[in-house]
Amino acid sequence: MTQTTHSLALNKRKRRLTWLLLLLWALTSFGPAFFARSLSFEVRGWPFHFWMAAQGSFLVFLAMVVLYAWLMNRWGRELCNEEAKANPYSH
Predict the structure, then answer these.
(1) CA-to-CA distance for 91 and 87, rounded, in angstroms?
(2) At residue 2, does pLDDT exceed 70?
């Protein structure tokens, strides 16, 4: 694989991950509001829909940001390693 092929593969992964995380964010942010009546069980004494609106959606968002950063760092290192293997004398 050439450097361009590696970059294209990384961009495709990034786009797929971005769309997946946007879908997850939309479901956790707007889902409880639409289905609040059917989410009427309790978590630690609070109604689940209230918990999702007040804390759960925010915690899911933070987890998504951490996951995105971790994966981008990992994929970036993989790209650098592949480029170094392809061109060992370029540095």
Answers:
(1) 8
(2) no
